[in-house]
Amino acid sequence: MVSDMGIFVSYTTRDHYIDRKLLESVSEVLSEYGSYYIDLLHNDSIDKQRHVEQMLSQAQLLLLMSSNSINESEWVQWELREAKRNCIPIIAVQASFDREETVSNLKFKLASKFKKPIRTKAEMR
């Protein structure tokens, strides 16, 4: 169960198929697994980089949206180094030009690693 797991999503928008719409779809899937952080959707801080650092330091899992440009992204590489340095597990999900395929890859990867948290009737309302 991952109900109190803080999932930090690492990605780069250098690849045009990693966009707000895809990240919103990722958000929908992750909402079934507990708390999560996606910078593009959640960072309204004045000091954006500091906020990213804080959220990553609190994460219990880094979810890497693996796209063609992740190796060229200094931010993604920094996030991966920090996760490794802090012994935060990393799960990579292959992202593709096909949004549905990416979401399917995400669902499969999460389902194979974790059980969805059990929700009470009160939480379902």
Short description:
It comes from Desulfotalea psychrophila (strain LSv54 / DSM 12343). Helix 1 (20-30) links the parallel strand 1 and strand 2.
Question: How would you describe the overall organization of this protein?
Answer:
This is TIR domain-containing protein. One of its GO terms (biological process) is signal transduction. InterPro entries: TIR_dom, Toll_tir_struct_dom_sf. It comes from Desulfotalea psychrophila (strain LSv54 / DSM 12343). By secondary structure, the protein is an alpha/beta fold. It has a single domain, classed as 3-Layer(aba) Sandwich (Rossmann fold). It is built from six helices and four strands; from the N terminus they run βαβααβαβαα. Strands 2-1-3-4 form a four-stranded parallel sheet. α1 runs parallel beside α5. The C terminus is likely disordered.
SSE inventory with pairings:
Blueprint: E1 7-10, H1 20-30, E2 36-37, H2 39-42, H3 48-58, E3 61-66, H4 74-85, E4 90-94, H5 99-113, H6 121-124
Parallel strand pairs: 1-2, 1-3, 3-4
Helix pairs in contact: 1-5
Protein name: TIR domain-containing protein
Domain TIR: 7-96
InterPro entries: TIR_dom, Toll_tir_struct_dom_sf
What labels would you give this structure?
four-stranded parallel sheet; 6 helices; 4 strands; single chain; Rossmann fold; alpha/beta; disordered C terminus; 125 residues
Sheet bearing the most strands, described?
Answer: 4 strands, parallel
Structural class assignment: alpha/beta
User: CATH fold name, please?
Assistant: Rossmann fold
CATH homologous superfamily annotation: Toll/interleukin-1 receptor homology (TIR) domain
String of helices and strands? EHEHHEHEHH
Beta-strand percentage range: 5-15%
* Top CATH class: Alpha Beta
Radius of gyration: 14 Å
GO biological process, one term: signal transduction
Protein name: TIR domain-containing protein
Domain TIR: 7-96
Pfam families: TIR_2 (PF13676)
